[in-house]
Amino acid sequence: MASIDLERAIEINPHYTQAYCERCLLYLKQKQWKLAFKDVERAVKINPYYAMAYCNRGLIYFKRRKSALALIDYNYAIEIDSNLAMAYYNRGLLYFNQNQLKLALSDYNRSIQINPNLAELYENRAKVWIKLKNFAKAIRDLNAAITIFGQQKNVAGYQQARSMLKSVKKSIH
Question: pLDDT, tens digit, for every residue of 121-152?
Fold first, then answer.
């Protein structure tokens, strides 16, 4: 249904940048890289100052293991909009995967400061705390993620965070 709505929105207004970015994310979920990239490139061409387009393109690069290009796009998205929580979140994922834990932590902190109601942020920051062996902070973040997932009735996220919490508690006892 969402894909039909996006097709219709683009048909009505072929310069609707956000619709291209939303459809890009749908293509990403389906691992249709070329279509996702085509849409995000169209969005950038229409509005070269739309930060979310660079964030999405960075995500495509990240998923395609082109970390240097992803980092360039995340940095540019943040330069355009320093309050785009997803750009910090995605850059944090990149840094985490490169084992640059302090940089990942910094980006997760900023992202949480911007959007404190996104459970995934706490869950991912907990992963950093676990690698840094700061289990108390990991537990605190996992409890926050569990609370938010519960409030949002996100059963899968709730169960995953509970499982991580159980693992962390088991490893310190």
Answer: 999 999 999 999 999 999 999 999 999 999 99
Identify which of 29, 26, 28 has the alpha carbon closest to the alpha carbon of residue 2: 26
Closest alpha carbon to 126 in 154, 91, 167, 66: 167
Query: For residue 1, how many C-alpha atoms fall within 13 Å in the half-sphere facing its CB?
Result: 0
Whole-number percent of the chain with pLDDT over 70:
94
What CATH number matches the domain at 1-107, 1.25.40.10, 3.40.50.300, 3.30.540.10, 3.60.150.10? 1.25.40.10
Rounded distance between C-alpha atoms, residue 33 and residue 13, angstroms:
23
First to last CA, the chain: 48
